[in-house]
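User: Just a sanity check before I run the rest of the batch. Below are the structure tokens for the first item. I only need the designed sequence back.
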């Protein structure tokens, strides 16, 4: 039987990253149509102390791959964060999706109770069960960054809606 945590994580990450990739394609086409320099959107942010659109997408991908890797007991692949354009970001999403697809469902067996230790941006480590890590940490952070990327584009006049955000299911 396939782990319900695997099913939940892989389904949600793939659906939402697919939607994010489509939203980025719409934004790139919109910038071209409105003769807006793409970097104006890529460097936009909702508030000065928040990440840019470009960084929001990078971090969303980081959460999707790191949560999946840790739940599967795999090494988290490194990223060089060198993306500069919409095509680069869509390629990063595609690479993240390919990584998630490369993790065999069997690797997730028993992950609900596996201990996951993180040290997210602070010297203090946090310990979770696999289930708590996914539901109380990984998914909320992932959704925050995907939602913020969408909100930055919407705030800048890109005609995207809920259907674009949610993606295909």
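Assistant: Here's the designed sequence for the first item:
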């Amino acid at each position: 039987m396939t782990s319900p945590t695997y099913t939940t994580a892989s389904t949600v990450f793939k659906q939402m990253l697919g939607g994010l990739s489509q939203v980025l394609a719409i934004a790139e086409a919109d910038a071209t149509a409105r003769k807006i320099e793409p970097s104006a959107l890529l460097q936009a942010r909702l508030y000065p102390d928040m990440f840019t659109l470009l960084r929001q997408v990078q971090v969303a991908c980081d959460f999707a791959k790191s949560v999946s890797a840790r739940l599967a007991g795999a090494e988290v692949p490194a990223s060089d964060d060198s993306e500069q354009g919409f095509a680069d970001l869509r390629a990063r999403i595609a690479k993240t999706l390919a990584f998630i697809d490369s993790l065999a469902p069997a690797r997730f067996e028993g992950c609900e109770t596996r201990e996951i230790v993180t040290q997210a941006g602070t010297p203090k480590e946090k310990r979770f069960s696999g289930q708590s890590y996914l539901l109380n940490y990984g998914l909320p952070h992932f959704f925050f960054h995907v939602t913020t990327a969408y909100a930055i584009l919407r705030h800048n006049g890109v005609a995207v809606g809920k259907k674009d955000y949610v993606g295909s299911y």
